[in-house]
Structure formats: C-alpha cells, structure tokens
Amino acid sequence: MALVAACDNKSTTPPGEVVPIMIATPDNGDRLTDSQTIQAVAGAGYIFTKVDFYIDTILVATDSTAPYQYFWNIFTYDPGLVHPLYVVADSGVNDYMSDVILVTLDFEAGFSFAGTYQPGSQNALGVTNYGNVLFISEGDAGVEMLDIRLKTAPQFLSRFDTPGQSLHADVLYPLVLIADNGLGLRSADFSEVDTMIADGVYTTQSLAIDVAVSDSFVFLAENDGFTVLEHDGNGFTSLGRRSFPQDILKYVVAYDDTAYVVGNNGFYIIDSQRRLVGSINNLNLAQAVAVVDTFAFIANGNDGVIALSIGDRTNPRFLARFNPGQIMAAVDAGDGVLFAGASNGSVYALNYSTPDTLIELGRYIASNLLEEIDYASNYLFVAAHTNVDILRFVP
User: Fold this and answer.
1) SS3 call for 287
2) Do 19 and 7 meet the contact criterion of CB atoms below 8 Å apart?
3) Among residues 251, 187, 253, which one has the least CA distance to residue 222?
4) CB under 8 Å to 325, separation ≥6 — which residues?
5) Beta carbons within 8 Å of 254's beta carbon, 6+ residues apart
6) How confident is the model at residue 334 (pLDDT cuts 50, 70, 90)?
7) What CATH topology corresponds to 110-394?
8) Given this model, what pLDDT does residue 10 score?
9) Which one, of 143, 113, 155, lies nearest residue 380 by Cα?
10) Mean pLDDT on 371-380
11) I want to staple 380 with a disulfide (CB 3.0 to 4.6 A). Which of 76, 283, 354, 391 is the partner?
C-alpha cells in the first residue's frame, strides 16, 4: 500500500481540503504535566481499518475502532524533552500519515501534590480507586463516589448511605463492595453514571472490617473470623468461614485467589478453601498489608514496615524493616515501589528491589492523619481523615 502524507488543518491544509487523519489532542506545542489520551480523528468520508500511534518514531499502539485513541503514560518517558507524535491510518488501500506534532513533557521526579477533596462528612476512613472513579469510605456517612479524570479537581458523583460504619471497600465491577462494620457486607451497582444503586447484603456473624476481591472470590475479614464468598450476579453465597478467636483481624488483600490478612498479632495466608497456608505471629498491632509477586509488606505500627518473602507461602520469611520512628498505618505497592503511610500523615516511597533492604526514595507530608492509601498508575490516593489527597509519584 502507498503511504500518503496527510497535512492537518492546524497548519498547512488548503481551505476546503479534507484531511484523511489528524491528531486532535494534544495540540502541537503543548507542555504535558500529566498522562494524556492521544486522539486521532478521521476526515469526512475516510474509513480506516486501523490507526497506528507513533511516539519518537516508535510504534507504541494500534487502535482498530473509532474514536482512535491511545492512553500515553508520560511518566515512563524522560521529562524536559520534546517528543514527536504522529499516527498512520490504514484504509485497506492506502496508508495515510498525519502531520507530526511536538510536545514537551513537564514534570519532576518524586512526590508532588496533584489535588485534594474534602468529603461532606469530613471523615475519610478508606479509599479505593477503580479507573477514573474513586470511592471514599466515610463511616456512618456511607460511601462517596468521585470522578477523578481530572486529578487536580475531583468531582462528586454520588453517595451511598449505609446503616452501619463503612470502613473499607473493593470493586467487583459493576459492584462496589462495602465492609459495613456491624451490619455486614453490602454491595452497590455503579454502572450507571452519577449513581450507586443498592444491590445486596451479606449478614456477617461478627463485625465486618475489610473486603478484598480476587479473580474468583470475595474475601471478607471480620473482627474474629474470615469468610470466603462468591457473587453470581444474584447475591452473595458463603463458601465457608474460618474463626480467629485468638486475634482481631484488621485488613485483607487478595492476590492470585489467595487472601493475605493481618490482625493485631499476626499475618495469615489463607487459600480459597479457608486453609491456613502460612503465618507469622507476634506482630505489633499490624494495620495493613500489601502483596506483590513473592513479597508481602506489613504496616506494623510502632515497629515500622516489614518486608517478607512469600515465595514459599507455607513459610513466610523476614527480609527487611523500615522504621522511621512513627506509627505505620498503611501500605500499598506498585511499579516497583512500595508506599508506606504513617498515622501522622507522612507518606514514604521505598525501593524494595534490593534483597533484604528497603531504601527511601521520597517522602511527603499529607494534610492530616492518615487512614489508608491506594496506588494506581503514578498516583497515590491518601485517605487523610478529613480529606483525600491525591499525590503524583514519578520514580
């Protein structure tokens, strides 16, 4: 097929001439401070089977369905440099190349403040990110849902009232699942824009503390027990419960259909059959846990953050400790970086790539007492008691 250059109407297109393909956003000469969706638009009368996206002359993506677009995570590129962007569209007969546009990436490494949101209750106990949506657990004020497409200005979408105390949430799309403390596990459908509709409830034997969703199961941590559930679209079905009378459970995460749970005194690895695969006891008021690959990280109160090897899940092994002398209350991991939050509002970025060592990469002071953190795609969402802070982190 022949390659035909397609001038865009931002520059050299003669009046009245139809441009086969052009980049609609970003604009030529833009300085980008955040990740960007590159959008390509076909001219009137042109139909394409695919559009290829090029950055720095390198093919990075192909889209076969209009609107043609590619989400560009700019934080994987070097800042301060000019990057050429263009697309090539395939009509099945000819290839058409757009004009080249030039953009400059303008950001700094480390932590930076992106935005903040104060819920109406001023009581942000938990935070859960799902794509462009953020859920805030607010105790007796229920759960708020925000639109966070613009990180600098989060927008309220909806509130879901719960009769108990909403502590933590997770997503089983199209449902948000809510640990509603004394009144069980609740679910709300958020597939419709700007609303959350009650879906169902599972009544627990004791206080619902936290919930985590794996590929196949729902794991529910109660203050003295652990329940495995399924949701088939018509409600929750319990697959069984395991009692923990010797501990008070605090937090659960799911990884590969396995639950990783911390309580005041211990760390527990539990499979989907509720079997206790491995554990570590004598922790110091553990508050939260994060798991990635063969590592588990525990926010362990006055004892800081501890890193464990869980390559052998039957025998978790201590690797390292990071203790800044504060009460560590939250952890999350992603993109090769561990994030740890202290209850006084300090947030740390830690490198865990070196065996037996946690190396501090950066620190940020959130605006208030820290409750929970959630990380996704270079953004850290911080439930800071009276508000939620949105931080950007670039390694």
Assistant:
1) coil
2) yes
3) 251
4) none
5) 212, 213, 214, 217, 219, 260
6) confident
7) Methylamine Dehydrogenase; Chain H (2.130.10)
8) 41
9) 113
10) 95
11) 391
What residues does 96 pair with on adjacent strands? 4, 89
Residue 179 has pLDDT above 80, yes or no: yes
Reduce the DSSP state of residue 75 to 3 states and report it: helix
Measured CA distances, 62 to 7, 38, 48, 70, 110 (Å): 20, 12, 12, 8, 31
CA atoms in the 13 A half-sphere facing the CB of 151: 21
Mapped onto helix, strand or coil, the DSSP state of residue 304 is coil
d(CA 67, CA 313): 45
Residue 143 — very low, low, confident or very high, per pLDDT cuts 50/70/90? very high
Q: Cα angle vertex 215, ends 213, 218, to 5°?
A: 35
DSSP state of 153: S
Domain 2-105 has CATH 3.30.240.20: no
Q: Residue 135 carries which side chain, given as an amino acid letter?
A: F
- Reference 159, options 179, 175, 181, 137; nearest CA is 137
CA–CA separation, 390 and 378 (whole Å)? 10
- The CA-based angle 54-59-60, given to 5 degrees, is 85
What's the rounded Cα separation, in Å, for the pair 227 and 258?
A: 12
The tokens describing 289, both together, are 């846990």
Domain ranges of the chain: 2-105, 110-394
* C-alpha dist (Å) from residue 320 to 168, 289, 314, 350, 352: 28, 15, 19, 12, 9
Nearest CA to 41 out of 87, 94, 103 is that of 87
Which tokens in the block code for residue 277?
């695969």
